[in-house]
Amino acid sequence: MKYIKNHLMFILPLMAILLGIEFYLVFDRTTDTYEKGLQEGYSMLVVTKEPMQIDAFRVLNRHISKSESIERERIVSKIAKGVTKEGEAKILKSLPYFYNVHLDEYISTEELIGLKEDLEASPLIKKVETFGSNYESNYRLFSFIKFTLKIFIGFMTVVSLFLIMKQMEIWKYAHKERMQIMEIFGAPLMLRSGVLFKVAIVDAIAATLIVSSIFLYLKFQWAANSGIEIMVQNKDFLFRITDIAVLLAAALLIVIISVYSVVYSTKGVQE
Amino acid sequence: MSNVINASNLTLTYDNGRKEVITDVNFTVKKGEFVFITGPSGSGKSTLLKSLYGRIRPTSGNLVVGGVDLAHVKPSKLQELRTHMGIIFQDFKLVNEWTVAKNVVLPLMIAGYSLDVQNTQAHRLLKHVKLSEHAEKYPLELSGGEQQRVGVARALAKNPVLILADEPTGNLDDYSSNVIWDLMENACQQLETTVLVVTHKIPQVFSLPYRHFIIEGKGVYEVH
Questions:
Q1: Does any CB of chain A come closer than 8 Å to the CB of residue B81?
Q2: CB 3.0–4.6 Å: which of A111, A130, B113, B117 could bond A107 by disulfide?
Q3: What is the rounded average pLDDT of the residues B160-175?
Q4: In chain B, what residues touch A184 (CB-CB under 8 Å)?
């Protein structure tokens, strides 16, 4: 019972950290797709005095990825109904050039303002319409969700690290005497701390497997059978096989740091 | 005979160098000698013993044990030196979660001997200290005298060059004390192991010739 308790006291906080990491990975993948959607669906309107190619736009700001020219003839035909051919030609001549400009990523509102300023600084550009308020509300909501989740994950990680440190104190007292006796008789560091490393590595593997199993269940059972369209569509984001490596590496890193902290704090014989 | 311990102008301090325990002392101990160090409480007996296995570094002077200069020794060299020593403590310092047999073969485990060798040696050593029937017990199931016999068996496990003992009979009754002295005398006589014992009282019944140093007023003097 004591043996199981000792392991659980280490595995549970480690699991909390791994859950935090996996949640972050899932969220990052999901928001990446969402961000891409927002970015693809967004464009600004740029009015220029002369025709401009994409390279000319890119020189003004690196975030511009694509520009689509809006057919001027179509605009004229819409606004100049009942006007003579000569009149249409005159309107067309005096009409500026219109472009839908797309961005390479979902940039912040501040960056969007900067981009607008960059474009407006060009003598060739007459007007820039960024549809900023719509963009800003999307961006703020998105940033808020991202920020809250990061805070939650960060908080969970800090609390779990404290629990792990507490458990390390217990390990320290449980193993201190044995390690010090071994040190007196000349045992090298790795031999003295071998037991601790074994226990910690087993716990790291156990925590990784449990967390991976939870997410595999969520992916293949819960999400797949939930009947919620968005879940079914995005179930691939829930867990990827490479996540096991990420989780295991994180768990091993945490346990190795923890064990070394115990080993070094028990150095030196006390008689 | 070669010197196993060579102290010259040795000064030892503790409390970060603030308190001097031993000042500018010189002494040597040869291979196969049995040495007692006595002195009043707080005179620095244990400090001197700790310096012999590298727990405390000399503040000044030289201290060479088994050919290793303990004033300038690297941790890896100190580890190696300790594998050639057997150390016996007043409070036994046994690993209570390990069986008696496992405690006894600790030096062999550290030296990387196979499990077969460890088992054979555990059997031999426990027979030597008359604890064969307790091999699978845990230290806390034994009496103080029996625990110290386990400590002696552990100290002898690797036929050490030097045995250091800090008040080995300090917590034991007369009968158990005599058993411990016998075991250490045998080790010195049969294996030519150098034995250095820090004690407040030299045993009355002791058959081997021995040297006696006394620590007094920060100095170490040989009693003839």
A1: yes
A2: A111
A3: 90
A4: 53, 82, 87, 93
